[in-house]
């Protein structure tokens, strides 16, 4: 069938067959289908959607467009985790070591920051000497020896997604549930783990702003994972407020270390424990309660922190900074943002908090911007708390002093204040398995 006919079929809301989807993806990757035709197809998908079967077929074709990593050289069950992206989300740095300390292997390929959201690979590179571009043989050997390794995505992992994502980014076709789910799951399937835990973020700092949309995305991704024979669970977590108090690369690594020592912020600790317990549960380590207990013990005994130091050392990083975070390089300039008025903080526009951190140098404004690892924000007050006028809301860190005014304006405007006391919504809003959706 010609691409013209496939576009017409989707425009009329008809279901594409497996063969049609396969021909389309193969043709696009080979350069036989031009961007203008693929753009029309993506827009038709945005308007007409895709059935569960079409989305699963699309995902599998995208996964098979490049290397399918075979993790069989790593002993035991391998569990992967994916977050749909947020602000202050350093959970991988905490959960990977906890899960490994409990005897489950984590062979994780992560990405860099995208827009206002941070990326695990950028955070890891804030650790002096840390290598994230590691060949497959060494990656497998680190996971076998240490239990956990986090590296950058190999160049040939789901290349169809790389091409489609770049096209979606410039054709206003990112926010489509079948396109987001196939994009994320194609990379997860290609990365080869037996089980997948999805952390689907919801709220003003996430791709999905409402709980209903987040649940719909989670259901679609869980269905794809299970269809491909991977045990998959999704947890919907709050991203209507930054996670933890630190935003920015080395600040977030330090907060992750504090959390592994049992001294992290409460919200980050709760979310990490839930995610780690679900990963252990997927790996068959017991009931959720038993897994939660295992995760807590790994932190209490210091075994999880030791795992992070071992992973850093194996990836040629300076593990002494993990044991003594005061050794991290500090930003040369600091500035305290004060509350413009008295009252309860009723909301934080979390995307804007991420943008303020990016402006300070913690993220990339352009594709090739250089990251300042010391830059970012420590929040002293968050949603639900009471502040007096001029009380410290946050401290900004940067190497570029001239950025303070812009970052202060963005961050101050991200806060909304009210006279009435506010109750925070739960951190964990729902859990989606192949059998059910539980809302909390
Ligand atoms: N993350 C991805 O990898 N793909 C999307 O489409 C959205 C978020």
Note down, in words, how this protein is organized.
This protein is α+β, with helices and mostly antiparallel strands. The protein folds into three domains: about 5-50, Transferase, Pyrimidine Nucleoside Phosphorylase, Chain A, domain 3; about 70-325 and about 430-440, Pyrimidine Nucleoside Phosphorylase, Chain A, domain 2, CATH 3.40.1030.10; about 330-420, Aldehyde Oxidoreductase, domain 3, CATH 3.90.1170. It is about 45% helix and about 15% strand. It contains 17 helices and 14 strands. The chain has a five-stranded mixed beta sheet with strand order 1-4-5-13-14, with helices on both faces. Strands 6-9-11-7 form a four-stranded antiparallel beta sheet, with helices on both faces. A three-stranded antiparallel beta sheet has the order 10-8-12.
Key traits:
five-stranded mixed sheet, 440 residues, Pyrimidine Nucleoside Phosphorylase, Chain A, domain 2, binds uracil, 3 domains, 16% strand, Aldehyde Oxidoreductase, domain 3, alpha+beta
């Amino acid at each position: 069938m010609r691409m013209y006919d496939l576009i017409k079929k989707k425009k009329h809301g008809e279901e594409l067959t497996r063969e049609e989807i396969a021909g389309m993806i193969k043709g696009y990757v080979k350069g036989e289908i031009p961007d203008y035709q693929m753009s029309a197809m993506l827009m038709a998908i945005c308007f007409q959607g895709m059935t569960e079967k079409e989305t699963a077929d699309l995902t599998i074709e995208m996964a098979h467009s490049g290397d399918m990593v075979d993790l069989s050289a790593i002993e035991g069950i391998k569990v992967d985790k994916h977050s749909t992206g947020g602000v202050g989300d350093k959970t991988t740095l905490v959960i990977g070591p906890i899960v490994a300390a409990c005897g489950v292997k984590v062979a994780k390929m992560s990405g860099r920051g995208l827009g206002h959201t941070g990326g695990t690979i950028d955070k890891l590179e804030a650790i002096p000497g840390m290598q994230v571009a590691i060949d497959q043989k060494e990656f497998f050997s680190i996971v076998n020896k240490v239990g956990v390794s986090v590296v950058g995505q190999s160049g040939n992992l789901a290349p169809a997604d790389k091409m489609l994502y770049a096209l979606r980014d410039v054709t206003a076709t990112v926010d489509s549930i079948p396109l987001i789910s196939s994009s994320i799951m194609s990379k997860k399937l290609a990365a080869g783990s037996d089980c997948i835990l999805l952390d689907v973020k919801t709220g003003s700092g996430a791709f999905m702003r409402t709980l209903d949309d987040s649940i719909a995305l989670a259901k679609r991704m869980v269905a794809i994972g299970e269809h491909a024979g991977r045990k998959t669970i999704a947890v919907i977590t709050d991203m209507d407020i930054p996670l933890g108090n630190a935003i920015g690369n080395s600040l977030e690594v330090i907060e992750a270390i504090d959390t592994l020592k049992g001294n992290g912020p409460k919200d980050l600790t709760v979310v990490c424990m839930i995610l780690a317990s679900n990963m252990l549960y997927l790996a068959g380590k017991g009931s959720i309660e038993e897994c939660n207990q295992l995760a807590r013990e790994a932190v209490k005994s210091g075994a999880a922190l030791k795992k992070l130091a071992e992973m850093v050392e194996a990836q040629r990083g300076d593990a002494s900074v993990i044991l003594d975070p005061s050794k991290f390089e500090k930003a040369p300039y600091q500035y305290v943002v004060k509350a413009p008025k008295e009252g309860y903080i009723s909301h934080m526009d979390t995307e804007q908090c991420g943008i303020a951190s990016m402006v300070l140098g913690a993220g990339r404004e352009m594709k090739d911007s250089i990251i300042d690892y010391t830059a970012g924000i420590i929040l002293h007050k968050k949603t639900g708390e009471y502040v007096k006028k001029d009380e410290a809301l946050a401290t900004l860190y940067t190497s570029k002093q001239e950025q303070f005014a812009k970052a202060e304006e963005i961050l101050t405007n991200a806060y909304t204040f009210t006279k009435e006391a506010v109750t925070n919504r739960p951190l964990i809003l729902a859990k989606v398995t192949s059998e059910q959706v539980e809302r909390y």
